[in-house]
Write a structure and sequence with these properties.
His_Pase_superF_clade-1; alpha/beta; Rossmann fold; 6-stranded mixed sheet; phosphatase activity; single chain; Phosphoglycerate mutase
């Protein structure tokens, strides 16, 4: 059985304010660094053999305390990247709330493309593809994946059978852990937003 810890990055100054997307240079704030250390203390008790992170700083900085505690390297995977928010990257939520397509994208994720960015189904395909490859490579492994809210929600929605148009019903707080197991029978989600 493969056990995957799906971990949203810890707090930074953009959460609830703007859409950083894939903008480089956005690291954790003081609260986020505290969250990452606390997360590492709790997860260090688990038999994690591999740590993989999105290349964005906020994810890597969340993963590093656990890597230090377990004496593991953090592998980087573009498959775990944030949604490509295209033209909406670096815009505030206040600005986006005046854009009709933003509202449509948030209610109809399965059929809308971010202007010059990704469709949610593309995000889900790359994330689920990465999870399936890890299961094939590590059929008895325990792996920590550090990434971003919407991509992790897309994985959880897939394995729960929840349509992408409803996946925002899945709450994922900063530094939240969700646990997914995969074996030869049926996937199981052991917890979400812990």
């Amino acid at each position: 059985m493969t056990t995957l810890y799906l971990i949203r990055h810890a707090a930074n100054d953009t959460i609830g304010v703007s859409i950083p997307g894939r903008t480089p240079g956005i690291g954790l704030n003081a609260e986020g660094r505290r969250q990452a250390e606390s997360l590492a203390t709790h997860l260090a008790k688990e038999p994690i053999q591999l740590i993989i992170s999105s290349p964005l700083e906020r994810s890597v900085e969340t993963a590093m305390p656990l890597a230090r505690k377990l004496n593991l390297d953090v592998e980087i995977s573009d498959a775990l990247l944030e949604v490509d928010f295209g033209d909406w990257s670096r815009q505030t939520l206040e600005q986006l709330n005046t854009v009709p397509k933003w509202g449509l994208w948030n209610s109809f994720r399965s059929g809308q493309r971010v202007p010059n960015g990704e469709m949610m189904i593309e995000v889900q395909a790359r994330m689920v593809g990465a999870v399936q490859l890890l299961h094939a490579e590590y059929p008895n492994g325990t792996i920590a994946l550090f990434g971003h809210g919407d991509p992790i929600r897309s994985v959880l929605a897939y394995y729960l059978g929840v349509p992408l148009d409803l996946f925002q019903r899945i709450e994922l707080s900063p530094a939240a852990v969700s646990i997914l197991t995969l074996d030869d029978t049926a996937p199981k989600i052991l917890c979400m937003n812990r």
